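Render this sequence as a predicted structure.
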Amino acid sequence: MSADDSDDNIIRRREFKISDSIQLEDILIQDDAIKETVVSEKNEIDEAIGDIFDPFSQDNENLPGIVKKDGTVETSPETDVVTNLAKEGERKVNWILMASMIVIFSALGIVVGTALDPMLAIILLIGLALFGFWLGELWIPKNNLNLLGVTWVIISMKVLYGLAIELQRWDFITIEILGLFLLALVGLNVYASYRHNSDAIAAQSTLILLVIGSATGYSFGEIGIALMILLATILVHGLAIHRKSGNLAALGIASTNLWIGMHALTSGFSIGSLTILPLETRLLLFILIMIITGINASMAAKFARDENWFSKAFEALGLGKPGLWGVSISLGMVGALMAVGANREELGYAIGLISILVSSFGGSYLVVRGVSTKRVVQPLLISGIFLTILLVTNESWRMLPFDSYELFAVLGIIVTAFVMLRDQKSVTDRVLWTGSVAILMLLVIMIPAEPSDNFCISNCQAGDGGFLLLSALTFIHIGTAILAIKREAPALAGVTVILPWSWVIIEEILEESIRTLIVANSGTDPGSIIHLEPFPLFGYFAIASILMAIVNFKLGKNGVNLASKFLGVTEVSASIRDSGLLQLWSIGLWLPITTIIFMAKFGGFTALTLLGIYTLIVIIHMISELTEKRIGNASIMLATISSGLLILQWQYGIEEGFMVIYSIVAMALLIRNNGSNEVIYSIGMSLLAVPMLISLVARKSNELIDTELIPSLGITKISILCTAILVIIYLSKAAKMEKLLSPALASLWLLTVNIALVYKEGEFYEIIIALAMFAVSTIWLVGNGEVRREIKSITKKNSLKELAKEESIEKNISIGNVTGFNPQLVELKNKRKKRREMEETENIEDLYLTDATHKPVIIILVLGLVIVSSAIISFIGGTNHLVLLSTGIFISILVLVARERTKNLELELPHFLGIEMPIAISIGGIILIQVSGHLAAGSSNLELLDMAIMVLLVMSFCIISLINQRNLLDRILIAIDWFIIPILIGRIVGTILYESLPAPFTVNPTKGDQIEWILPWTILEILLILSIIIIAWIETKKLEKKKEPTTNNSLRALAIVFISTGPAGFLALILVIYHTIKNQQTVEFGLVMPTILLSMVSLSNWIDSLKGIIDELTLILGGIVLILCILTVPFKKEEWTMTLVTDSHLLLYSGLLLTGAFTTLYLPIVLISLSTTVWIIGIMQLRRILRILGLFDLIIAILASLMILGAKMLEPTTLLISLIVLAVELGLVAWLSLSNEDEIVKD
């Protein structure tokens, strides 16, 4: 046995000993088999594209971040955006600082040149450049400060480039001398890059060379521009080859194509004293693009596997690490497409340019993929030379009857297709799907879609209505669908599903944005750029829907992995990630519906085509769900379909058709369900009521073309029929349901809304039918529902008691000192700890009876019906004290009956947020009735006797909740919460809705009617003060019993401040601030500290002397809090820092707005002081969030100063001083950050 084998055995034994489990495959499967499995699971790596984020990638389901079949993710991705930012955020901030320094010092150089005397400016700029070179020499050799040193060298070069341009502007040198001067500086730039071995220093010479090349056109014309751009390209790539730098190669590829695209697209512009002319000669531009594209394609192939900045930028964003070829070619294609777009009107010319791009970059791709260079280059080079000669000859002497560019395009595409198809096995799925997206974009740009004669309204040129464009795109989608199935490629399946629907939305948004900008700038509306008429669009979407079904039936188990990289691990993003929203079947539903709604708004459908395409999509998903081919939640599918129908119904009517479509889907899903999934019944019946409500609302809908062709039976007949079908299906399966409340409530809701609709629109016999349906259904629910549930609750309680008895016996007969461990008891103990209404206990029977509750479904339903009915009456008739009082008394009786009934069963009522559910519903209902009354027409927010009744009723319910309860200390706090919070919510809702209730902080309780105004506010204030006193008493009792202090008193105080007229709020804040400081509750303190000012605002409504000092006090208090924040550093009180930072931000920003100081120079002073303080504290306390917050404060200070102070900030002297201060701050912070980077990164 060899030494290596011996080592392997030792390692295996050690792994076996430390393992917490034994896996049979570790023993039975040999190493060779494992290796083979690993190899077989490896995905093919595309060296050209690299490891870039692919939304359609499909990997092993056990890998982190992979979306599973049900749309969920088992484990979070190893490096998502959030995690990546958390790990590398500090270095990214430092990079931002470096980039900001470059921008600021460049701007400083410009301002120095304009604000100061030329001779003084020359001295200062040369001094600044020399200072930067000196810092570079000093810091570049040091590891931590290397980046800062490189930044200073770049700043120095930019200062010198700017100085050269300024010398020409001051007439010290001529334009020709300027060109030579710039070339000399480029030489110095290159020398500095070699001296310090930095591509970053060399990079700016690339852009300067292109600027010099373009500027020569001012003297030598377009040919001079083309030759100099070509020379600049050769120099740039020559520098990349000599330095063996992928960074410079990628930059050169991207910048040269973008620069040419700029020349083709613009009409010329100036950079200082340099004038840039456009390239207007078609042949010259064509040949220049051909040569530059060929050079760039060769460079991309040569440096395909090298490191580069663009790839690192993608990696830093958590999007993978693309190869140099892919990222540089992508950026280069943008520039080339600018030239294509500039010549869109000449179809042959534009397609000729596209053929150049496809052949050059396609050939380059094959070389990178391993195809022989000679095999690729030979046909492309020979055909390219031949076609160029043919093009130049025919353009010069017109020898052929064909358009030269069209001929070039056709022959070029044929040769390129031959080369690509010959080696198609080397092309990956990723390239195919991205290529299909690119081709679609090009076709949309190139193929005109004008209105046809049939749909032209006025002054239109006859066209095909988009038929040719949509036909061409249809062939692309068919091709991707065939390739997806043939190659079993999830990526191609994804583009087949997504692309037909998404591009239409994007195009319309861009088109409307462009038209809006043109009209906003007093231009003439150009009208629709791409006009898609209803019937071609219907055919296109219909084929897309069928292709979606075919592809999803074959490959629908695959998902779109957008969630695996973009989303972090927070609760919100995890919910989105786990919802299956980005699964192919789900996308195939909500994306088409969104597109249909969007296009209907822009005249893309008639009534018939709208119904037709929506019905087709619904049928496809319904059949796939019934045949169990569809992946996803049926309830979400039903809700999505309903949402789309409701939006369309609201806008265009067609109630009957949409209601029938929804009912068919709901009926099919309910029939298939055996009663085990109550949610689908609740959603199905509830959503059917919504289109009925829309039909009840008087509105003006936009009628579509052909609406009159749709047959109509009458909305009431359809409503009765659909309601009857769904309710009958539900009642037939209700006996099998465990949770009756939700579906029962949904059925009663549906029946009630149906009665309302029939009563308004129907005949007498239809009203009788609707009422009979309601009566029969209600009697059935009462007769079969409540008794069965009570029996089940009693049986469950008895079984739990038996389990508790068995557990007690087992515990008593334990052997020796060894006792059993029951994880269920531990779980129940934890559950009781989380529930505010329950006290901790060691009694086994009490633990087992933790979940033994009885929900009185029928009483809850009656509560709901009474509350809703009273709310509707109040909403229609206005505030009615008798209705509110009688409803309160009636539901109080119901609550007492429910409590007594469950007490006789020796059970508890279910709780909601700590209070019994019927009481929670009653409190919410009373507030709903009161707010509804004030929403009625003619109601006044100055007549508030009903508020007094509401407050007393809510307090009575809170007192009822305390009767016959244990652990009263916790229960009282819960009752107080249920007194304060619902009243606050009702007040806010009433304020938002037409200010039907007085807004917080605006009430003067001393001026008004004694009964309707003063009495209600007095009752509310007394009860609030009483609540505060009780809270303080409870805190004292908790301290006496050595219990943990309450942690949410700040929220109670905040709620009291919002609903109080002043005294109660002020008292609450004083007590809470005292307790938070005493108990070191920093978060609680931070919440209540700023609200002192809100309480003073309330008091100022009836104490006039407070009105003049609150604004200034806000700013002063913010300054005091900021000073306290600074003091946390020397006094080592880091736990208070974040709270004080937050409060200082809130108070200082508010103070600037309230005092009007934001329009003065105090704005930058305060904000930069805040930024500097927070940033330095973040460095000293090693807290990343403070450093980032300081950066954001600085950005806000700059933007706010420029936008608000405007011309004042742009005055040369003010701007110069501001830039100096800003530059000093950035330099200081950058120096401190980089000097301590090792310690800071550990944060």
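Summary. The mean pLDDT is 78. The longest helix spans residues 764-812.
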